[in-house]
Amino acid sequence: MIDAKEYLKKMSAELDGPMKSYIGDEEPKVLMDAAKQYPFAGGKRMRPAMAVACCKAVGGDGSKAVPLAVAIEYIHNFTLIHDDIMDGDEKRRGMPTIHVGYGEPTAILAGDALFAKAYQIIANLDVPAENMRDVLKYVAQAVWDLARGQQMDVNNEGQIVTEEVYLETIKLKTSVLFAAAAAGGAIVGGANPREVKAINEYAIELGLGFQMYDDYLGIAGDSSKTGKSVGNDIRKGKCTCMVTNTIANLKDPELLKEFKSILGNMDATDEQCARAKSIMESVGAIDYNLNLAKQKVENAIAKIQFLPESEEKEFMIALARYAIDRDV
Questions:
Q1: Mean pLDDT across the stretch 136-160?
Q2: What is the distance between the alpha carbons of residues 270 and 71, in angstroms, rounded to a whole number?
Q3: What is the distance between the alpha carbons of residues 99 and 87, in angstroms, rounded to a whole number?
Q4: CA distance 298 to 65
Q5: Residue whose C-alpha is closest to residue 172's, from 212, 135, 222, 207
Q6: pTM, 2 dp
Q7: Nearest-angstrom CA–CA distance, 38 and 24
Q8: Is the peptide bond before 39 cis (omega within 30 degrees of 0)?
Q9: Which residue, 23, 105, 240, 277, is the most exposed by fewest CB within 10 angstroms?
Q10: Of 229, 225, 241, which Cα lies nearest the Cα of 326?
C-alpha cells in the first residue's frame, strides 16, 4: 500500500515549479510578494495532488491536470488569506499571516489576485471546450458553496447547532474544494459523467472525515505539531460534532452548566479547556466524532472501488485514510 505522506511529498516537489511559474515579477511588487507567500511556502498540497491523481486514475495524462492543480491550490490559498483576516490569526505555517506582514488592504487584494489568476489558468487548460465548461462549473460552484459554508461557520460560532447543520457547514466549507479538485481532475482525464459523479462523492466524504479529524486535533492535538493553540476552538465556542454530541448526551445538569460556561469563553484558562475536553470524553463524544470520521472515510473509499487498479487509485485510498490518521 502506498504511503500517502510520501506520495504527497513527491507530488509537492513535482508541483513546486508549476506552482511558482504563474506569478511573475509584475508591479506592484508588494502585491506580488503577498500573493506568493502562501502558495510558494509549500504545505500538504492535498487538493492539487488529488487533481493530478484523479486524472491519471481514469486513464488521463496527468500533466494536463497540473494547471488545474495549481489553480485549485491558488483558490485554497485565497480562502486562507481571507480566513486569517476574519479570524484575526497572526501566524500560519510558522510565518506572520499576510494581513500582519503586509497590512489588511494588501492582503485582501492578494487573495483577490490569486482568485483571478486561478480562473485565468483554468481558461487555458488543454482540454476540449465542453470539458473546460464542466471544470469551470465544478470550480465556480465550489467557491460559491465555500463562501456559504464560511458564513454558516461564522453564524454557528457561539451557537449550539444540530449535527446535521454542522455536517452541512463542513461539507460546504471544506469538502467542496476537495471535490472540485477530484472531479475536475477526472474531467481533464476524460472520465464519463458517472465516473466524475462517483469521484466527486469520494472527495466530499473524504473532506468530511478530514474536517472532523481537524476538529479533533483542535482540542486533542499536539500544538507543537499542529501550530494551533489547543483549546482555542473551545474558547471560540466552535460548535463541532463533539460539542453537539456532548450536549445531547450530558444528563447531569450541573456538568452541562459547567460545560456551557467554558464553551465560548475567550478568557477560559488552559485548565478549563482541559476540563471541557474531559467532559466530552466522559460522554463518549470524542470517540463518536472519530468513529463518524472513520465512517466517512470508508464511504469515500467505497465510492472509487470501480476504478481499475493503479498507483493513483492506491493513493486515493491511502489519502482518505491519512485524512483521519495524522498529527497536523
A1: 92
A2: 40
A3: 11
A4: 26
A5: 207
A6: 0.92
A7: 15
A8: no
A9: 105
A10: 225
- Interatomic CA distance for residues 157 and 277, integer angstroms: 18
Q: Look up residue 119 and give its three cell numbers.
A: 480562473
Distance CA 96, CA 225 (A): 17
Domains and CATH numbers, the chain: 4-322 (1.10.600.10)
For 271-299, write each residue's pLDDT tens digit: 999 999 999 999 999 999 999 999 999 99
Whether the CB-CB separation of 205 and 297 falls below 8 Å is answered with yes
Could you tell me the three cell numbers for 143? 467557491
Lowest-confidence pick of 4-13, 65-74, 295-304: 4-13
Estimate to the nearest angstrom the gap between the alpha carbon of 246 and the chain centroid: 25
Compute CA 212 distance to the chain's CA centroid, rounded to the nearest angstrom.
Answer: 11
Long-range CB pairs of 114-117 (<8 Å, 24+ gap) are: 114/35, 114/39, 114/74, 114/75, 114/77, 114/78, 114/81, 115/74, 115/75, 115/78, 115/143, 117/22, 117/23, 117/35, 117/71, 117/74
CA dist., res. 18 & res. 16, Å (int): 6
